[in-house]
């Protein structure tokens, strides 16, 4: 009888396992949307006014448009730059940096203020700052100013430019 019980028990377990091993499955999809590209709108170009022509001459441009050093306002043309951003959604977290550069004749070291609604956040050259945008995505920009220095003698009356890079990346 015990052999019969053992066989009956084995058959019973095989039937149970056979029933359990039959299952259904279905695949579903999860979605995500990539952040859109940030759009930059330069509403005011950075202008340091007029600078002396000798190597080592330096001109500092303040956030309020005042200049100091070996320069003058150039007939009131000196002004900080203004860049506004779009394509950023409310409640985003972004990293912002501004980096000056060098050309053959001048170097630019930037200083900036991130403008987020009524809040002003200082930003040093090539130093990223992480910002929570909150509900201010439509009121988000940056003002750019800093220091321009002559590294090769300038031709009097000529205009010189230097690039700088603004980077905004989602975190």
From TrEMBL:
Where would one find the signal peptide in this protein? 1-23
**Keywords of this protein's UniProt record, alphabetized?**
Signal
Q: Which domain of life is it from?
A: Bacteria
UniProt protein name: DUF4402 domain-containing protein
């Amino acid at each position: 009888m015990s052999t019969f019980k053992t066989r009956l028990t084995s058959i019973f377990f095989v039937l149970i396992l056979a029933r359990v091993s039959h299952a259904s499955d279905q695949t579903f999809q999860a979605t995500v949307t990539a952040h859109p590209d940030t759009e930059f709108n330069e509403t005011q170009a950075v202008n340091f006014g007029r600078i002396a022509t000798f190597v080592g001459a330096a001109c500092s441009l303040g956030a309020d448009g005042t200049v100091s050093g070996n320069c003058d306002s150039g007939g009131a043309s000196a002004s900080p730059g203004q860049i506004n951003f779009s394509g950023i959604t409310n409640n985003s977290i972004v990293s912002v940096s501004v980096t000056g550069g060098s050309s053959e004749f001048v170097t630019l070291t930037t200083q900036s203020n991130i403008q987020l609604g009524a809040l002003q956040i200082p930003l040093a050259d090539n130093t990223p700052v992480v910002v929570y945008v909150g509900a201010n995505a439509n009121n988000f920009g940056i003002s750019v100013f800093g220091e321009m220095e002559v590294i090769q003698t300038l031709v009097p009356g000529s205009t010189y430019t230097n690039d700088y890079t603004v980077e905004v990346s989602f975190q």
